[in-house]
């Protein structure tokens, strides 16, 4: 975790803020982390990635792959076959996101569970109120 509460000051807060902004700048958008998760299965061609992600358009997928390539998370490999084969795969550097992805997954599961539980509670309360 970050600095302890008693160790926080303007410098550490600014450093933390800048670090989080840098991370969000690189991983912004709704597709980058799902794209990385998709590529954890191994090298894939463009159409395979698009199918695995579902609703992503080719234009957005192309942009996201280029961004991930620029930030050294993905490598694009061109094979001189007929027709040319292009695959995308994760770099060893992408493994540095493993803990981030694990934490986001765990938090997401707990958050969804909380929302579902609260909806049930609200639904039961509404039914009781309606029956009175």
TrEMBL record:
Residues 13-116 form the HTH hxlR-type domain. PROSITE patterns: HTH_HXLR. InterPro entries: HTH_HxlR, WH-like_DNA-bd_sf, WH_DNA-bd_sf. Keywords: DNA-binding, Transcription, Transcription regulation. It comes from the Bacteria. The keyword Transcription applies. PANTHER family: TRANSCRIPTIONAL REGULATOR, MARR FAMILY. This is Helix-turn-helix transcriptional regulator. It comes from Pedobacter riviphilus.
């Amino acid at each position: 975790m970050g600095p302890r509460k008693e160790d926080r000051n303007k410098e550490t807060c600014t450093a933390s803020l800048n670090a989080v902004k840098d991370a969000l700048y690189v991983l912004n958008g709704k597709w980058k982390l799902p794209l990385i998760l998709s590529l954890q299965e191994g090298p894939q061609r463009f159409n395979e990635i698009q199918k695995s992600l579902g609703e992503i358009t080719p234009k957005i997928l192309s942009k996201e792959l280029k961004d991930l390539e620029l930030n050294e998370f993905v490598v694009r490999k061109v094979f001189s076959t007929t027709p040319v084969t292009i695959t995308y795969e994760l770099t060893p550097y992408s493994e540095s996101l493993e803990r981030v992805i694990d934490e986001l997954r765990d938090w997401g599961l707990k958050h969804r569970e909380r929302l579902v539980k609260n909806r049930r509670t609200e639904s039961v309360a509404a039914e009781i109120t309606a029956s009175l």
